[in-house]
Amino acid sequence: MTATMRPSPSACPACAAAPAAEALAASALPRAQIALSLPTIHCSACISKIERALAADSRVNSARVNLTLKRASIDAAPGVTAEEMRTLVEGLGYEAYELDQGTLNATANDRAGRDLLMRLAVAGFASMNVMLLSVSVWSGAEDATRDMFHWISAAITLPAIAFSGVPFFRNAWAALRNGRLNMDVPIVLAIVLAIITSLWETMLSGHHAYFDAAMALTFFLLAGRYLDHRTRAIARSAAEELTALEVPRATRLLDGVEDVVNVAQLAVGDLILVRPGGRMPVDGEIVSGTSEIDRSLLTGETLPVFAGLGQVVSAGEVNLTGPLTIRATAVGRETSLHRMADLVAIAESGRSRYTSLADSAAKLYAPGVHILAGLSFLGWYLYTWDVRTALNIAAAVLIITCPCALGLAVPAVTTAASGRLFRRGMLIKHETALERLAQVDTVVFDKTGTLTTGAPQVTNLDDLPREALELALGLAQGSSHPLAQSITRAARAAGIVAADLTDLTEVPGYGTKASYMGQEIRLGRASWTGAQGRAETATFLKVADQAPLAFTFADALRLGAAEAVQGLMDQGKRVILISGDTTPAVEALATRLGIPQWMAEALPADKAARVAALTAEGAHVLMVGDGLNDTAALAGAHVSISPATALDAARVASDIVLLGNDLAPIAAACVTAKSATRRIRENFQIATVYNVIAVPLAVVGLCSPLIAALAMSLSSITVSLNALRLR
Known about the structure:
Largest sheet: 7 strands, mixed
Number of domains: 6
Structural class: alpha+beta
Distance between the termini: 86 Å
Strand content: 15-25%
Number of strands: 26
Shape: elongated
Radius of gyration: 33 Å
Strand order of the largest sheet: 14-26-25-24-15-22-23
């Protein structure tokens, strides 16, 4: 059989090879990895809707939406921009903001978590094997057989603990090197003494060794440590989340020519074009164009504000309706958004210095334990001149003094309290949150999105003529402005049919206009429609020469807001309202809820400064907020709460997250926190009474290490049962 040579379709070999070369070059181009923040998604239907829409785009290779992080990760073809994907998602009715993938990837590799998990796995495997060997000893193995099992257990335990116990050894050494004691010090000492005692007994052909106890203790402590780490990893740094929200690229104008550059290349004085839907990359001043901007990132208020020539804008604000050219006045680390991230980082570091009740108890407990064990060893050695006897008694003293019971005193209660609050719709994120919540005497609330729903609702729809409603609906349905959307929803719900309008046009920064029966009609700002401004939120309908009609709006209270405020005040707590909204709106809500102290038109730095000032006065502040503008205040407060609907950075900075829309559990949580603190103190008292009875028995030699271990277990069970009383 012979092969037939096919003629080349091209007489030029280079031309024939060109398509293959182009394909190879295209495959070599890096694919676009895009991350979008999706703060408004709330269910699995949102996930499937967004993923289907992204997958339908032929340029998208894969797209995954994470509901917990409220984030979309998109793998797209080379050349696909984040702006294109953001526009696609926003077309589905969801907010979308580009995240800096590089910033997020900086913390994606959780080395500490992998290290803990690996050590936990080694400890678990070694513990199971040592337990199996111990069963043989417990079953009656004697003499050489028993000694062989002990030596095998030692061969497994020593390298396993040397590797798995590194986190405890490292923390204990760091504490001792700085001249202080923490919970890891008595734990390490107990493990080391258990090993030394076991080796001593094994070398002397003793009946009992405690390799299994040392190994099991290491395993369970590592399990608790890993779970704590995972909780912290999920609650990643709010400062990092804020930094990731900074715009990575911007359109710079050079002699009228657009040039897309990295934000890091921008300098003060540069002219930057920001199109509708784009986020401000720098702080600056508008030099051309009119529009409306969404300042919710900085103020928390959802209503847009007018943006015109000479107005100052800040990084993070969103341009809504018209193109704007701004001259940069602050770039990089000097922008408002970056300063907010710095405030959050500083506040987070300050809170991290809070000492838990367990660590406070350890400062008193641990020295006494160590001194007593040392004196017991010295006394018995001088009395018997027998190192074995002295070592056994010292080990018994150390074991019976129960670092485990002390360690369980707080977690046992916290677990019971956290379960109780979870059933009420509250998720405890931080290990010391309940202890700090019990100390709260001042509560600071944000307004929009926290005490209120953040969605304006028409209040006077029934007072307006039907013809005016039809005209307003015709104008409003052509705009994406929040007030226009509110009119559209309310009018359609009332069965209103939009009037047939022509020449519908949206004027950036002002409103919408159209023609109706040869007359011009407008819907928008008071100054644009010839109306007088009002104290409440309003937009106006102007029909030809007729007097403008006002559509008024109010923000509905969140479920349980009144109950939460009243419950906290009944407990004797000071309640303060701080908002970026206008003075009339804040005053009206404060009066409605009976809040005596309030502050309006507050920027993020103002909120953080007020919380800091209250703290400096000696107050223990609970901050309740939902927006990025609240993040610095949330991080700086003694304890903080945010709704599940809050933006990522706010939820991350909070100690407690409300899983539902009801605010009422906040007051109940304060009561539960005080009850939990009482139980913790009771557990310390139980441990103290136990030690007063048991320690003298160990010191006089009436308790072997085995009996001491059983007594320690009994005390731990007692502490756990007392914690369950919280339910």
